Amino acid sequence: MTQVVLITSGKIIVDQPIEEFNKTSKQKYKVLTEDNNRAMSLLQKEKIPFILKNNFLVIDQKNIFAIQDVLLKNNIHLQEILPLEASFEELVVNILDRERGKEDGR
After folding, report:
1. What would the pLDDT profile of 48-70 be if each residue is shown by its tens digit?
2. Which contacts qualify for 98-105: CB closer than 8 Å, 24 or more apart?
3. DSSP letters along the chain, please?
4. Residue 86: what pLDDT?
5. Can you tell me the distance from the alpha carbon of 19 to that of 74, in angstroms, rounded to the nearest whole number?
């Protein structure tokens, strides 16, 4: 299991599995499959939230693994996965900036 550990000023501010860390992200992805209609039907059946925008399924990062599993099990191939918002690296920087603000009294 991959662990995320963030240390600033000698203090551990994050120490958790990457899957848990990613759940705190506001990251969304645009997903294009070879058969979006079938994919949407399967995601609805599995109660995995998504929205359809410009022929892409827009999904939260916390659901990315569940969606990949559903599509793989049903032989639906992904054509594109594109991030829409903050990347993993940006999330880390945002956390570190917030922590620095606490230390500076902001």
Report:
1. 999 999 999 999 888 989 999 99
2. 99/8, 99/13, 100/8, 103/8, 103/9
3. --EEEEEETTEEEEEEEHHHHHHT---EEEEEES-HHHHHHHHHHTT---EEETTEEEEEGGGHHHHHHHHHHTT--EEEEEE-S--HHHHHHHHHHHHHHHHTT-
4. 63
5. 23
